[in-house]
# Entry
Amino acid sequence: MICPKCENQYGNDVEICPICLQELISEEAFELLFLRKNNWVVVYITSEIIQATMIKDNLENEGIQAIILNEQSSNFPIPGDLSVIKIKVREEDSDKAIELIDKMINE
Ligand SMILES: [Zn+2]
# Structure
């Protein structure tokens, strides 16, 4: 569980942040909040987790923080490997990231 205000992490048995007295939220909820706050944008979409991981590693080597979102919906199970994997970076890094990914893909 994470405090949305001070971003401290607590165990599952804690419900209120002892510092801010804020109600704690789950890691997933925090991640969504964090993404919205920092204007993360999608720079690449793939169906291969190996490719997504490779791109993320390369971006991070260049000092660009990247995250992988696997948006395969468990409500609509699709046979085969048709999951949608999105790579997101901060808006200010997106131009550089797209350029780097272009180079990576065309190599
Ligand atoms: Zn707090």
About this structure: The chain has a mean pLDDT of 86. The chain has two domains: 1-37, 39-106. The domain at 39-106 is CATH 3.30.70.1530 (Alpha-Beta Plaits).
